[in-house]
TrEMBL record:
Alphabetized Gene3D superfamilies for the sequence: 1.10.287.70, Ankyrin repeat-containing domain, Jelly Rolls
Biased composition (Basic and acidic residues): 1-11
Residue intervals of the Cyclic nucleotide-binding domain: 389-494
TM ranges: 79-97, 117-135, 156-175, 212-235, 297-319
Name of this protein: Potassium channel
Protein family (similarity comment): Belongs to the potassium channel family. Plant (TC 1.A.1.4) subfamily.
Keyword Membrane set for record: yes
Keywords on record: ANK repeat, Ion channel, Ion transport, Membrane, Potassium, Potassium channel, Potassium transport, Transmembrane, Transmembrane helix, Transport, Voltage-gated channel
Superkingdom of origin organism: Eukaryota
Ranges occupied by ANK repeats: 570-602, 667-699
CDD domains listed in its UniProt record: CAP_ED
Entry GO MF terms: voltage-gated potassium channel activity
Length: 822
């Protein structure tokens, strides 16, 4: 199996997003060693942003990848030093290979020894390459699987690297006689020149080197190499020609030009090559025979392209130096990056900014360039896609941090950069994907770190939800990736899903209540006072107030004329919720304002049944006094549920409150059938006493008598025998209606009661809101808060029923968890 290591090297289970998580540990469950290394690692520097690799979208960590044993990282400093050393050897190869090809007939002097020594170093590099991990350009994953490394190297450069390392002496013994010339095989070593191109590309991106001089050095090297190669070819053509006098060098130096010093011949050759390349053409040297003319034709054609390349690059460099209208966004990213960095550095020095601010400016520009050039800022691509695809992409990339939030945008922040400033306007909130950030509060000019956020935590949510200035400074400790959600986009989502907004506000109150910070307690008091303020419009419906058992808020909403029978997405009214929670005050208020006590929800339940299930006797009595009856609901379902629970008392309550326990349920069976399947003789006797017919078939054609006989319940059969039998009693046979299979339900344990979020333990926030003190504070700017924005889109008109899609309240486990679904 292929094995690829992502930048964090870990896989984690899917979790809900922690919207109100504060501090630590509510998001991704990192290993203790990883957490400790992240929190203690302060070595992230701004210079490191120009090298290495950035974490991919959704990656959990950008720390150094733990590779397999004996595998080398391509970004290791020692390996980079080795590559630099090989580049200097390539410069030697670039000069000596054409020279040997043109001027030497056989190994001579120290050159063969030096060549073989250089070959040894490149042979070592071939072996070393099999142990160097590589970066997959498609997925940006660091691959350290030895088989994949070897296969990739074998498919690309292995053959050329091996051939270029073979000693020339060995090659001459293997090659045919017509190819045993000393220079032919040496030209294959020019394959190593690709390393020089990679080195110059790296230096051009390194801001510690001057881009102008790096570019000039590259152009000079290119020109010198072209001149050197052409000169060596000129000499070889003349040297191998049959008539020395009929050659260009024979005309200049005589037919005995071989007797001249090698240095003189080399200088003469280079002189003619460079005059031809520069198109000077003094006329003192010219091609004589046909071979020289043909080569000169192709050389001059090559010069046309080379001169165009040189002139174009030099023009660009001159314009780059003299232009005063350059901007950061440019077609040439490298030049644009350097312009912006130099301008930022000059600005900082001219205005004598602190060193920390200077570093932040430079780091931000470097990181912005890298994310753009490496394709990590794909927001334009995402914006062009439909919302469903964006949601799926976000779910795949960030599923363990945030679930189905397509409006969030991934951004990178360098170390020591302020993401949020204290007391700034609440425009965005962030979820931390990778890295570590400090939450800082500033008092009397002194900064105090109050918390450290880890991947999965959120910051800036209190300011956005409550529409108040940001409470803290949020500053990165190292290179971090955050998901940004703007307040505008968030409120647009909430306006379309008001029920989710109610859940968020409820979770916010619970989160604030759990905080021990005095500042958070102040925010909690302000928020709860605002929610109960009677003279302001609220976007929250009756169901929200009943869920929180807030009779004060409920009363204010009813006084405004809110429909007391408004329903949520499950068609449950506030009376259903209040009855299930046993909130006598809320039930009384709703009944006083005309709430229907016999309204059914989508499952056929009525408020009285919810109160009976919750064993809220006072609420049951109050509803019964207001003509609430179980007969208005699906009494057959109620009776079957009571039988499945083996609860005779619950059955008696159903009968007491007008429920018919002999009716069919939604599955087409009766409580008596269910009791027989459960082999509960006591309940069977009670049902029969209440008028259940033992000969009434269900939708499958089974009568209770036949079912008891088929399942062999002797006690129940004996009970049926003691009853008075009618004259036309049918024979208990297995029904054959439309091929219905024989029903043979075995006795089972009582079924698990259906979980209803409304019946869960209430989240009481009134304790923190001082319910005994009804003097509430107003806040004039509250219409700009979350609830204020929600109200504008959802305020019901007179006589109009407003549907608030309130979902079940989420479990709160130390922090609030929400999922915004589009």
């Amino acid at each position: 199996m292929e094995r690829q290591r992502s930048l964090d090297g870990t896989k984690e289970k899917k979790k809900k997003v922690v919207l109100m998580g504060g501090g630590r540990g509510h998001g991704q469950a990192l290993e203790p060693s990883e957490v400790e290394r992240i929190s203690m690692d302060e070595r992230s520097s701004y210079s490191s942003l120009s090298s290495g690799i950035l974490p991919s979208l959704g990656a959990r960590s950008n720390r150094k990848t733990k590779l397999r044993p004996f595998i080398i990282s391509p970004f290791d400093a020692r390996y980079r030093l080795w590559e630099t050393f090989l580049v200097f050897l390539v410069f030697y190869t670039a000069w000596v290979s054409p020279f040997e090809f043109g001027f030497l007939h056989e190994p001579k002097g120290p050159l063969p020894i030096t060549d073989n020594a250089v070959n040894v170093f490149f042979a070592i590099d071939i072996i070393l390459t099999f142990f160097v991990a590589y970066l997959d350009k498609g997925t940006y994953l660091l691959v350290d699987e030895p088989k994949q490394i070897a296969w990739r190297y074998a498919k690309t450069w292995l053959v050329f690297d091996v051939i270029s390392t073979i000693p020339l002496e060995l090659a001459r013994t293997v090659l045919p006689k017509n190819l045993q010339d000393y220079g032919y095989f040496s030209l294959l070593r020019l394959w190593r020149l690709r390393r020089v191109g990679a080195m110059f590309s790296r230096l051009e991106k390194d801001r510690s080197f001057n881009y102008f001089w790096v570019r000039c050095a590259k152009l000079i090297c290119t020109t010198l190499f072209a001149v050197h190669c052409a000169g060596c070819f000129y000499y070889r053509i003349a040297d191998r020609y049959k008539d020395p006098k009929n050659t260009w060098i024979g005309v200049v130096m005589g037919e005995d030009f071989h007797q001249h010093r090698l240095w003189n011949r080399y200088v003469m050759t280079m002189y003619w090559s460079i005059t031809t390349l520069t198109t000077t053409g003094y006329g003192d040297i010219h091609p004589v025979n046909e071979r020289e003319m043909i080569f000169d034709i192709f050389y001059m054609l090559f010069n046309l392209g080379l001169n165009s390349y040189l002139i174009g690059n030099m023009t660009n460099l001159v314009v780059h130096i003299t232009s005063r209208t350059r901007k950061f966004v440019s077609k040439i990213f490298l030049i644009a990056q350097r312009d912006s960095i130099q301008a930022a550095s000059s600005f900082a020095q001219r205005n004598q900014l602190p060193l920390r601010l200077q570093d932040q400016m430079v780091a931000h520009l470097c990181l912005r360039y890298r994310t753009d050039s490496e394709g990590l800022q794909q927001q334009e691509t995402l914006d062009a896609l439909p919302k469903a695809i964006r949601s799926s992409i976000s779910h795949y990339l960030f599923y363990s941090v945030v679930d189905n939030v397509s409006e969030m945008k991934a951004e990178y922040f360098p170390p020591k950069e302020d993401v949020i400033l204290q007391n700034e306007a609440p425009t965005d909130m962030y979820i931390l994907v990778t890295g570590t950030v400090d939450v800082i509060i500033q008092r009397n000019g002194i900064e105090h770190v109050v918390a450290e956020l880890k991947p999965g935590d959120i910051c800036g949510e209190i300011g956005v939800l409550c529409y108040r200035p940001q409470l803290f400074i949020v500053r990165t400790k190292r290179l971090s990736q955050l998901l940004r959600l703007s307040r505008t986009a968030f409120l647009n989502i909430v306006q379309a899903n008001v029920g989710d907004g109610a859940i968020i506000m409820n979770n916010l109150l619970q989160h604030l209540k759990e905080q021990s910070d005095p500042l958070m307690e102040t925010v909690l008091l302000d928020t709860t006072h605002i929610l109960a303020q009677g003279r302001m419009d609220l976007p929250l419906g009756l169901c929200f107030a009943a869920m929180r058992e807030d009779d004060l808020l409920l009363h204010q909403l009813l006084k405004r004329g809110t429909d007391p029978n408004e329903m949520d997405s499950s068609r449950r009214t506030a009376l259903h919720i209040a009855a299930s929670k046993g909130s006598l005050e809320c039930v009384l208020l709703l009944l006083d304002y005309g709430a229907d006590p016999n309204r059914k929800d989508s499952e056929g339940n009525v408020p009285l049944w919810d109160a009976i299930l919750g064993r809220h006797k006072a609420v049951v009595k109050l509803l019964a006094e207001n003509d609430a009856k179980l007969s208005s609901g699906d009494a057959g379902n109620f009776a079957c549920f009571a039988v499945e629970q083996n609860s005779l008392d619950l059955l008696k309550d159903i009968v007491h409150h007008g429920g018919d326990i002999t009716l069919l349920n939604s599955l087409g069976t009766t409580a008596l059938h269910t009791a027989i399947s459960e082999d509960n003789t006591e309940i069977v006797k009670f049902l029969v006493d209440q008028g259940a017919d033992i000969d009434e078939p269900d939708v499958h054609g089974w009568t209770p008598r036949a079912l008891a006989d088929f399942q062999g319940h002797e006690t129940i059969k004996a009970l049926f025998e003691t009853m008075k039998e009618p004259s036309n009693q049918p024979v208990a046979v297995v029904p054959e209606k439309q091929g219905v299979p024989a029903l043979s339900k075995h006795r089972s344990e009582p079924t698990m009661p259906i979980f209803r979020p409304e019946i869960a333990a209430p989240i009481d926030v009134r304790e923190a809101s001082s319910s005994n003190d009804h003097r509430r504070q107003r806040r004039e700017n509250f219409p700009n808060s979350l609830v204020g924005i929600m109200l504008a889109a959802n305020r019901p008109s007179i006589g109009e029923r407003a549907f608030y899609h309130l979902r079940a309240i989420l479990d709160v486990e130390g922090s609030c968890i929400i999922t915004v679904r589009e």
